[in-house]
């Protein structure tokens, strides 16, 4: 069970999960093809302006992952001159562009899984992305000796939220109420323990 399943059960509605490429995922809301985007979306000011966002349901710092033992990477700034992979059209692309002063040595892939594969295959020096997602994919590469570090390029770790079409206040209210209820009754903590190995979702202290 996911947090959204538990919220839906608490509030008496049903959800069907449909896999969707990240590129164009928000357009499905605009076209009324989907009601909710639940894909590890961070709450940004731009998204607040364009969409209806739920309350935060998780804090997940960004993670940088690499395999070259000769590299001793500790901060996001250490990636400046390296070839780095990440998922297309995400906030990490923007962070890398600011760090590098453009798109030089940035590899944009359709999924974070493919970005990690760029590192495993030796085509990229590092991959950056959502910590929880990357750690899950790293488990599928048991023969690879990964090295990693958490970072917060904007000084704080943003909340992960559910995204809805602007004006869908009824569903937004149900999600927020259901989220509060499963946090109060312990269901939320059990879900996080199962998937992430910890019941806590407190944000980490900024590393930079």
From TrEMBL:
Domain Solute-binding protein family 3/N-terminal residue range list? 1-199
* One Pfam family cited in the UniProt record for this chain: SBP_bac_3
Q: Which domain of life does the UniProt lineage start with?
A: Bacteria
User: What Gene3D superfamilies does the record point to?
Assistant: Periplasmic binding protein-like II
- Would the keyword Signal turn up in this protein's UniProt record? yes
Keyword list, A-Z: Signal
Supply the SUPFAM superfamilies for this chain: Periplasmic binding protein-like II (SSF53850)
Q: What is this protein called?
A: Transporter substrate-binding domain-containing protein
Q: Which organism is it from?
A: Paralysiella testudinis
